[in-house]
Amino acid sequence: MTEIETKPLLQRFPEELVSSALFLLKRLGMTAKERSFTAYNEAGLHPYHHAILAVLDEGSLATQGAIADTLGYDKGQLVGLLDELEDAGLVERRRDPDDRRRQLVRMTATGRKTLESLRRLSSQLEAAFFAPLSDEERAQLHTLLLRLAEQHVPNCRLSTPSA
User: Fold this and answer.
1) Which of 4, 24, 139, 158 is such that its CA lies 20 to 30 A from the CA of 96?
2) Cβ contacts of 35 within 8 Å, gap of 6 or more
3) Positive or negative, the Cα torsion across 34, 38, 43, 44?
């Protein structure tokens, strides 16, 4: 019986993959997501919580359905996230007096303070992740990513200022 020859594991991705911008975006996205989840978890929250609070910050009240639609979250998943936010005293829910089937969600004062904390955390994560790039390169990258997002992810369109 002969010993089976094994190839050593590659220490880097194949050139074919590294040459693909889409592959790089996927890998970078996975890395950014992992780092974000770790940092938010250490803060006792979740990036999804940050997104919900940011949506609520743009308006005083929102329905659970509107939040789910805006963020592209499953409505069942959103209920669990809102339960966590409500248990932490960051949001309040009440029945819509115009439609008892709907829940209106409002951020509390504690939620506003927490959102500011989460914004600082997000800024720190972004600064660390993009540290290899100059300010000009970061702005250029953001412009290009936003152009792609506006084409492929409708909810990523920035509002344009009124003339």
Assistant:
1) 158
2) 125, 128, 129
3) positive
